[in-house]
Structures are given as C-alpha cells and as structure tokens.
Amino acid sequence: MRRNLKAYISGIVISSLLSSSIVGSVIYSKFSSELQKQSQIIQNLSNNKNYSSINTIAANTISTGGTLTIPKIVKKVAPSIVGIRMNITIPNRINQVMSQSKAEGSGIIYDKNGYIMTNYHVVEYADPKNSYSKYTTLEVFLPDGRQTKAKFIGGDRKNDLAVIKIELDNLPVAELGDSSTLEVGETAVAIGNPLGMEFAGSVTSGIISAINRKVQVDDRTLNLIQTDAAINPGNSGGALVNSQGQVIGINTVKISSTGLEGLGFAIPINDAKPIVDQLMMFGYVKGRPFIGISGREITETISQIYNIPQGIYIMAVTSGSGAYKAGIRQGDIILKIAGVEVKTLSDIENIKSKYKAGDTVDVLLYRNGKQMTVKMTFSEER
Q1: Is 212 found in the same domain as 296?
Q2: Domain holding 115: CATH number?
Q3: Which UniProt keywords are present, listed alphabetically (predicted)?
C-alpha cells in the first residue's frame, strides 16, 4: 500500500516557469539606433565595490524633480534595462550535445560595478543550488550593443529575486524610486524584452491599477503592484517606472486567460531593495528559517483512498538540514508543526514566517501507521 502511494505521489509533477519564453534558437538583434545614441546617466555612487548598500545607491542617484514625458522617461531609463539569456546545454555520455534550450528575460543595472537585479525565475538554472547549473551559462545584452557573460551572485526563490554581475565599464545605472508613495491611477511605464531579444527595449505604458495585491504564485504569495501596462513573457525582471523616470517595480508576472487583459504585476522596489542588497552581499537572505524537505500534499481524496491522514508526504530530505537532524525521513507525513495543523505547503510557509533560523519546534509525524513527535530546529536557508 505504501509503495503504491509513493508511486502515485511521485507521478505528480507540477512545473511552472513564469519567466521569459523558452525558444529553440533566437538571434540577438541590437536595440534601435535611437537608443544607442541616448546619453548614459551618470551616477555618483559609493566606491565600495562589494558591499555598497542599495539604499545608498538610491540616495545618490540623480534626482529629476518633476514629471517627465514618456519619451524622456524612456531616454532616461532604457539604457539601464538589459536583456538576459539563460542557455542550458546538457551533453550526453560521449560529450556531444544532447539538448539545448534558452530562456530570455530582462534585468536592471542598479550599480556601476555591474550588479543587475532580475527575477529569480529568469536565471534560476544558473543557481549553484540547481542541479542544472553546471550546464547553464548567462549572457547579458546591453542597449548600446555590448554583450557579455554574467555570473550568478545570489537568488531568492521565495520573493522571486536574483542578482547577477557583469564585468564591463561605463555602465548606465537606473534610479530607484519609492514605491510606498504610489497612488492608484498614476502613470506607469514598463520597459523590457517581451518574447525575447528580437523585441528588446520595448516600451508600454499605462497606470498603476492597484497596490498591495496578494497574488498566489505556485506555493508562494507575493505582494505586488498591479498595472495595465502590457507585460509579457520576456518582460520578467524588467522595470516598472514612474513619471519621474524612477524604477518603482520589477515586472514579474501576468495573469492571462481568454477575456482577460491588462493584469500585469511587479514587485515593489521597496520590497526588493533589502532582499537584493543581501543577495549582493551574501548570496542569500540571512536568518530565514529552513526545514529541508520536498513534499506533496495529501488531499482528502488521497487520504480516504489510502486510509492515511491528511498532511504533507515527505518526498526527500536535505542532508544536514533541520528536518534531517530531527530524524524526519522520506515516507513520513507531517501532520503538525508547532501545534498547528499542516495540510498544504502554504500552511508550512505560513508557520515558517513566524520563526527564524535557530528556533526549535515540535513536529508531529505519521510513520508506519503510528504518530510520533520530534523536535526540529530550523536551519538557515541559503
């Protein structure tokens, strides 16, 4: 019975990629000659190469003062919006190319030393924590025609943010705004690469449709800005800009369905700043609790069929993690954490949000027909 259950659950594979479209072969075309002629924005930034604070960067950028026309917004911001290509090449046993795929998105240069912020899902296969990272390379394409390889610095799947770095001089840096001052109805301009590099540097405009929208993305709930400025695959990681030419959001996802239009979403820049700052300095967000399990939800239907309790079925346990040290193992079903019932992966995330790395909680398990309680200390997510 357990073997059949495991086979059933293992067969449930849910894969989603919010990012840029994946293409078999895309030829990079340069941005328009108009953008190539645009003057770069000169920034007065900290000379500390490795640990400059994003808040300092925002404070030192050039202030524009008043409202700009959309063409002036584009001239100011577009030079700092780059294209990002993630190339995955998996060789076969005799070292010949077995399969190739590419994913393309956007990014924002926010530091003169070459640091670029983007969405995690745009570059996730380059993350050393991903088993495909050794097969993955990153390329960055600038509006002035330059292109270069990039290094993965850090990523945070929970907030869908990442930082990569390029080694080039004379980089135009975006000015960061204050998303806490946004009002519904004000101008919003989206700049990025919808559908890949062929349409690099595309500009769409609209308004801020709503703020503080809670949007469910896979097993996470993100706090996002809603806009009717067109956002499409490939825009991920690009800039949502206000009427002063300041980046106030990172374009992340759209909701698309027959009959629906104008539902694009961006991560508020004030939410992104502290995360990106830590990714730049440490490569991860410090102090975040980590359990170290991969699991599937036992629904009410599965519970009745197999005569087991609802909870989270453990598919795998990360070596050295809090779960591993607590003795939690593959095949267990988590019923409660810290006295709170667990029936969905979202339940686990909600519980984790109340604790920090180093905290210890009781975990109620179901194993081989019996319930048991273990003490688990959250490790640090890296």
Answers
A1: no
A2: 2.40.10.120
A3: Hydrolase, Membrane, Protease, Transmembrane, Transmembrane helix
Q: Is 236 in the active site? A: yes
Decide which of 239, 265, 282 is a domain's last residue. Answer: 282
Which positions ≥6 away from 344 have C-beta within 8 Å?
Answer: 297, 312
Question: Which residue of the set 160, 228, 277, 347 is catalytic?
Answer: 160
Give the C-alpha separation, 25 to 198, whole Å: 11
Q: Is the pLDDT of residue 125 over 70?
A: yes
pLDDT value at residue 259: 62
pLDDT digits (tens, 9 = 90+) for 37-76: 333 332 333 344 343 333 333 333 334 457 899 999 999 9
Return the top range by mean pLDDT from 33-42, 73-82, 100-109.
Answer: 73-82
Residues 356 and 214 in one domain: no
Which tokens belong to 189? 């301009």
The DSSP annotation for 265-326 comes to: EEEEHHHHHHHHHHHHHHSS-TT-EE--EEEEEE-HHHHHHHT--SEEEEEEE-TTSHHHHH
Domain contains 64 = yes
Last residue of a domain, one of 244, 260, 282: 282
Among 21, 121, 179, 277, the one annotated catalytic: 121
Catalytic residue among 19, 236, 243, 321: 236
Q: pLDDT tens, 316-359?
A: 999 999 999 999 999 999 999 999 999 998 899 889 888 989 99
- CA dihedral (50, 55, 60, 61) positive or negative: positive
Examine the domain organization and report whether 201 and 72 are in the same domain: yes
> Domain tally for the chain?
2
Task: Write out the residue range of the structural domain in which residue 370 sits.
Answer: 287-380
Choose from 21-35, 88-102, 188-202, 248-262 the range with maximum mean pLDDT: 188-202
Q: Smallest Cα–Cα separation from 84: which of 204, 238, 191?
A: 238
324 part of a folded domain:
yes
308: CB partners within 8 A, 6+ apart: 5, 298, 302, 333, 366
Q: Are residues 257 and 376 in the same domain?
A: no
Same domain, residue pair 241 and 304 = no
Q: Return mean pLDDT, the chain.
A: 82
Task: Please give the torsion angle defined by the CA atoms of residues 121, 126, 127 and 133, in that order, rounded to the nearest 10 degrees.
Answer: 130
